[in-house]
Structure formats: structure tokens, C-alpha cells
Amino acid sequence: MSHQTTADRLEDLPSFEDMIGRSGLQFMQDVLAGRLSAPPIARTLNFRLAEVREGFVAFEGAPEFSATNPLRTVHGGWYGTILDSCMACAVMTIVPKGSYYTTLEYKVNIVRSIPIGMQVRAMGTVQHAGRSTGVSVGELRGVEDGKLFATGSTTCIIMKA
User: Fold this and answer.
1) pLDDT (0 to 100) of residue 4
2) What is the pTM of this model?
């Protein structure tokens, strides 16, 4: 186990200037291309950025045993994290240069359990993009069969730097 300090780990993340110095779409495209580092939570929970375009972001991954609850099923937090990521990052793609965003609230509806190790794709699509808020919806589906596992919605606040 690594014993890095918080400062060491923070150096791996894009700076605030990296974020506001480009449009949200450019920022997300740079993360996808590997020019900027992905968020550490994606490594921790075994998912990765898979697709970026204006108003749309997809992540792909598979829950591991470490994401299970005492019932031996995938914890709802895993569904919530990957859906929050795709929905909020979809909003990021509409944020202009000099602005940034954060999630205000999100909701997740789990419709079936994801088997441990199954590859899934979380897709977020912007429904509304205003000056101060963005709203998006998400779906979590099996990569191979397209089976729906969960849906979500989010509202994000958009702020000027």
C-alpha cells in the first residue's frame, strides 16, 4: 500500500487553471486523450472515460468484489458514482472557458443487480444547458447485451471563475 501524502496525490490532478483555461468540452477531450489525468475515483472503482462529445459522456467499467455490500451484491454507491460521473461530465462538455461546475443533486434508480466483473457502460446526456445550471440524464447498460441496470438524473451548478 502506498503512503503518499495528499500533496503528492494532488500533483497528479489537473490544476484549476487547466480546467478553466479551456472549455469543458476541451477539458474532457484532453482527459480522454490522456493529456490530462483522469480522476482517481475512476481507478479506485474500476471504470474509465470511454467517449466524449458535446452534451454526451460515457464511462465503461466493471464492479469488482471490493464494491460489494454485505448482501454480496454491488453496492449502490458504485452505481451512483459511475452515473454521477457520466451525467456531470456531460454537463462539463457544455461549460464555457472560464467557468466550472459541480453536482448539486443526483438521483439513481437501480433496476437490476450488476454481476461482479460484468462490463457496463454509463452514458450521460445533457437535457438542459443554461448559464447557471445544467441538467442531464444517465443510463447504465451492459456492454455486450445492452441490458439496463440503472438510470439517473442530475442537476449541476455552473459557476464563473
Assistant:
1) 47
2) 0.92
Domain boundaries, the chain: 6-160
Q: Which three cell numbers, joined as nine digits, stand for 51?
A: 467517449
75-84: average pLDDT: 98
Q: 6-160: which CATH topology?
A: Thiol Ester Dehydrase; Chain A (3.10.129)
Following CA atoms 86, 128, 104, 112 in sequence, which dihedral angle do they give, to the nearest 10 degrees? Answer: -50
Q: Report the alpha-carbon angle 79-101-24, nearest 5.
A: 95
24-33 vs 76-92: helix crossing angle, rounded to 10:
120
Tell how strand 133-142 and strand 148-160 pair up.
antiparallel
For the purposes of burial, counting CB atoms within 10 Å of the CB of 139, is it exposed (0-12), middle (13-18) or buried (19 or more)?
Answer: buried
Q: Each residue of 25-64: pLDDT tens digit?
A: 999 999 999 999 998 999 999 999 999 999 999 999 999 9
Strand arrangement of the beta sheet that strand 120-129 belongs to: 47-53, 56-61, 120-129, 133-142, 148-160, 99-110
